[in-house]
Structures are given as structure tokens and as C-alpha cells.
Amino acid sequence: SPYLKAEFIGRNYLHFESISSTNDYAKEIAPSATDGTAIVAEEQTSGRGRMGRHWVSNKGQGIWLSMILKPNLSPNEAVKLTQVAAVAVVDSIKEIADIRSGIKWPNDIVINSKKVCGILTEMNGEIDRVNFIVIGIGINVNVQNFPEDLCGKATSLSIETGKILDRKPLTASILNNFEKYYRIFLINGFSSIRNLCKEYSLTLNKDVKVIINNNECIGRAVDIDDDGNLIVVFKNGEKKTIASGDVSVRGL
Ligand code: BTN
């Protein structure tokens, strides 16, 4: 692609007309794939979201992308890559679609309170070091209609901008921006992108419902710390550090 500036993310680029799930395929080939391999499909027949949910991935309507990474990181560090990817996606949406989006901590990209993109990070390895990481990014680009259960909850770039968008420059921009932030993250750690996460956050300074071992607690999200955790202050004044993956956080 003439748009791709990244030096290793997406240099090995596998494109499919139809696939079950780019994340499943990525995990399958990851042991022998080169670091930075990108997998893109026009359509996914079993696109997956978080918590075992289905991800609608119709033909040509979105970017269904997975990236294979092989850094020297512990799983605890690797989960932070979801937020690195989120920052990259927000920048790319602004760059290519000229519209502002924000991050619902830690991994949903939202426009006008509706979800336009989800990120699913999966990994394999040992407690002290991962073998590989797969970052799956699904962006609703030219979707015009969502199934009934997603109405009011999901949106697409074309719905929000009123334009049909070329997916190629957007895909390349995501690979470029992800590589940029990924390098910064590997060298300087999460704290170096913390300010962008906070700037783009739609969760901060809002009330959130946190579910901790089946208990619902309402508190106010007051900060994202140097490790990417959400700091929540509860009604009784108690302050808790919420790690992504630990809990489910919902806006109110
Ligand atoms: C979520 O918000 O629940 C995460 C959605 C992730 C969807 C992407 S699309 C490309 C990749 N392949 C999948 O099966 N899922 C991710």
C-alpha cells in the first residue's frame, strides 16, 4: 500500500476475502509468523468481541484487523497495548474521517455515545513473558444498518460523517499510528502515553458502575494512572485502583 509508512507493523500483510475471525487466524499462525504481521479480512463469519460476544463483521463494511506482536513483555504489561491501540485509532479516525472520537476505558472507541470500534487483545505465554500478542481491531466504517439489538448502541464512521470512506488509507493510518505509539510504549512504558489516554478518555470525571466479584458499586472515575489503571472514588470515600480486565466498567 502506498499509504503504509510503518516499518514493521503491517510489512507482512495478509488479506482475506472471508475468514472466520482474524484474531483466531492470527493466534493459529502466530508461533511462526513475523513480528508485526497484520491480517485483514473483508468479512468475518465468526467475528468475536469481548466476553464471548459476537462481532458483526459484514463484507466490505468495516476494518476487521488483527496484528501479531512478539515483544519482550509480561502479560501484565501486554494488556496495556489495548490502550496503546485505542489512542492510535482515535488519531487515525481524526486524520482520515476528520471526526473526533473518544475512548471508553479501556478499549471502546465511541462517537456521540455510540460504539464505533472495539479492541480485543489476546495473548499466549508464561506468567513472566508472553510468546505472542494478538491485537484485534474492529471498526465500523461503512455500516448503514445494525441489527436490532445494537441499535442505539453502535454506530459507524459513515453514519457519523454522512460519507462513504475508503478503508485502505484508514487501515494504513492505524498501522502507522499504532507503530508510532507502540515504539514509544516499548521504550518509555505506559506513562509516556498516559496523557493522551486521559485527553481522549470519555470515562474520566464521570460516574461509573464497577462490578467487583458480582457486586455493583457506583463511583466516580477520577484518573488513569501510570500503569493504565482506572482510579475510582466510591461514595463512601474509598479509592480503588481498577485494572483493565479485572472488572466490568459501565458509564451511567
Ligand atoms: C469488543 O469490543 O468486544 C472487541 C471487538 C473486536 C473485534 C475485532 S474485528 C477483528 C478481530 N477479529 C475478531 O474476531 N475480533 C476482532
TrEMBL record:
One of its GO terms (cellular component) is cytoplasm. Biotin binds at S21, T22, N23, Q44, R48, G49, R50, K115. Residues 1-186 form the BPL/LPL catalytic domain. Keywords: ATP-binding, Biotin, DNA-binding, Ligase, Nucleotide-binding, Repressor, Transcription, Transcription regulation. The keyword Membrane does not apply. Its EC number is 6.3.4.15. Acts both as a biotin--[acetyl-CoA-carboxylase] ligase and a repressor. This is Bifunctional ligase/repressor BirA. The lineage of its organism: Bacteria, Bacillati, Bacillota, Clostridia, Thermoanaerobacterales.
